[in-house]
Specification:
With 349 residues, this protein is α/β, with parallel strands linked by helices. 45% of the residues lie in helices and 14% in strands. Helix 4 (145-165) packs across helix 5 and helix 4 (145-165) crosses helix 10.
Length: 349
């Protein structure tokens, strides 16, 4: 691999970046720590993905670890951001997959507790079980991060609706959900329970779409290309990152963009464009912080308490309202206001 982390634009003076490799199991990937402190570890889940190249995997690790620092800072958590990525080898049988996961977890152990991780894209419940069996630095087994991410998104949706329409009521509102994997399908469930008037869904994974349609027959399925163009109140990016580009936002007809995907903006300038268009863009790391809040709660407390986590989730409402007020009073894009607030927190610790 010719590129070093420092040569990539995603590198942001990361505290630690390591290439990990096991020739026996063909486990390969990266662990990146963006910010951390002497007394507190860095948090960030692990994903296993078929990356086109090592450089793509490294870019993802750098990007996502940085994002986790922003997320932790604005969630009021005294921890740094990190990320683990595993480059998924082709055609793994169950035993080979277990060996890859086990080998990766050994590398997590080498970090001696400076890196605390859990399940992200591609990590199955069986993978997480293997990780937990082989390391004490795995969290999220009992804390249900997907559930709490969706709950946090619902809180933020109410704040956004009140800001734009004057009422937090979901029952008369329409939504376009881009991506119905773990987070997207959980959001569909909560919106349906809240009586959302109309929900459109799209995903490149036809099985995910089929499962959601079976559970919620009233949702309307559209193609991934069509999901942007739906005339709805809120467009919810819940797939992989970089879905919001100058090209795609020109198609969006929703006055609010708020979803669970990480790194939704292709660049900061896209957030500035959305601001100029009069579209309320909710910074992803602000509104989808429910997962890390629940994982940190598990790390800090031996006894699981849904009520305790739900109370901590309320910080999403508080911070989002504060950012909206600052953006409105200054006339500056919401994503820039949020970035600067987070950076002032984690760069001064």
């Amino acid at each position: 691999m010719e590129d070093t982390p420092q040569q990539l634009q995603e590198f942001d003076n990361h505290r630690f970046v390591s290439y990990i490799w096991d020739p026996k199991t063909q486990m390969e990937g990266f662990i990146a720590i963006h910010r951390s402190s002497k007394n507190n570890p860095a948090f960030g889940a692990t994903r296993i993905v078929e990356y086109p190249s090592k450089v793509d995997a490294l870019r993802d690790a750098l990007n996502l670890s940085r994002l986790m620092s922003y997320k932790a800072a604005l969630a009021g958590l005294p921890y740094g951001g990190a990320k683990g990525v595993i480059i998924l080898p082709p055609h793994l049988n169950p035993k080979e997959r277990r060996d890859v996961i086990k080998s990766y977890t050994k590398r997590v152990n080498y970090m001696g507790g400076h890196f605390v991780t859990g399940a992200d894209v591609g990590i199955r419940p069986t993978d997480l079980k293997v990780m937990r069996e082989n390391s004490e630095f795995i969290e999220g087994v009992n804390s249900q991060p997907v559930k709490f991410t969706a709950m946090g998104l619902m809180m933020a949706i109410e704040v956004a609706l009140e800001e734009v329409f004057g009422s937090p009521d979901i029952s008369n509102r329409s939504f376009a959900i881009q991506g119905v994997g773990k987070i997207g399908s959980s959001l569909v469930a909560l919106l349906s329970q809240a009586g959302a008037k109309k929900i459109y869904i799209a995903d490149i994974d036809k099985q995910c779409v089929s499962e959601v349609k079976t559970r919620f027959p009233k949702v309307e399925v559209v193609t991934p290309a069509q999901i942007y163009r739906q005339k709805v109140d809120i467009f919810c990016p819940c797939a992989l990152g970089n879905s919001l580009t100058p090209k795609t936002i020109s198609r969006i007809k929703a006055p609010i963009i708020l979803g669970g995907a990480n790194n939704q903006l292709e660049s900061r300038t896209v957030g500035e464009l959305l601001h100029k268009l009069g579209i309320l863009y909710a910074p992803d790391y602000v509104v989808n912080a429910g997962g890390i809040i629940s994982v940190v709660d598990q790390y800090e407390n031996k006894r699981f308490s849904e009520d305790r986590i739900a109370k901590r989730l309320n910080n999403i409402r508080v911070i989002f309202k504060s950012l909206l007020a600052q953006s409105k009073s200054s006339g500056r894009p919401l994503n820039i206001v949020a970035d600067e607030m987070a950076e002032s927190i984690f760069n001064n610790h």
